Amino acid sequence: MHRWGTRWQEGLLRRKNRGSLQEVAEAEWAHEAADLARHEQTVALRENIAALTEKTVALEALEMRLRYQATHDHLTGVLNKGAFEAAVADLLKVQAEVQGAQVVLLLFDLNDFKGTNDAHGHSAGDKVLAGLGGHLNTRYRRATDVTGLDSFSGRLGGDEFAAAILLRPADPSVALAEGQLPRDTSPQGVLQYAQASLFEFGEQMNIELPGHWHGATIGMAVSTWESPLTYQQLFNEADAAMYASKPGRQAAIPRARTPDLADIAIEAT
Fold it and tell me: Rounded to 5 degrees, what angle do the CA atoms 204, 207, 208 make?
């Protein structure tokens, strides 16, 4: 009886040991399964993060494209009318805070552009507009980080373009790189630069598209810190100056609020 009881206890112990080993194995399996699940979750999380990052980049790129399309003229690449007016309004706010600052508005109206379309077709006219837009974008680009000047161009509609420049008091002494803005940054120098720039563009057009370019007329107005103008006032004066200097018109219309600019409005051909 004693021996049977001993064997029974030994068998029971062996079963318990076997049970312990099984429990250990199951625990190890469960641990490995948990590690695998965590690894799979980590991989899935990284894939989700990568997908979200890709979508975010795509959305940011789309936002930039939409913002560009909303503020730029699709044919010429310059600012559209609304964006240009808002940008000039911002310059006028800066001018109000900087003693001696001036904002110059230039208007460019193509001469006999209808004749270009009638003689050569609208696709040819579009080439002229696109070319002029690219030229103005090059000549009037933002350079505040280097020179303290701020300039940009826009298309106001049809064959009418514009450029605006903020002239700070220190600007006349700034030596600018050739091909950007005029070295003489007085209002007179800005207008002469605009004329020379359009003349250069006209020569290029006469080579690339003979007979398509008939020149353009420039009108300019200046808002000064001492006598500030609103955008509409600035535009109206530049517009009056431009039409006064159209071929065949002799009306003596003031060119700007600045007295010594009364006779500055010249036709560029």
Answer: 85
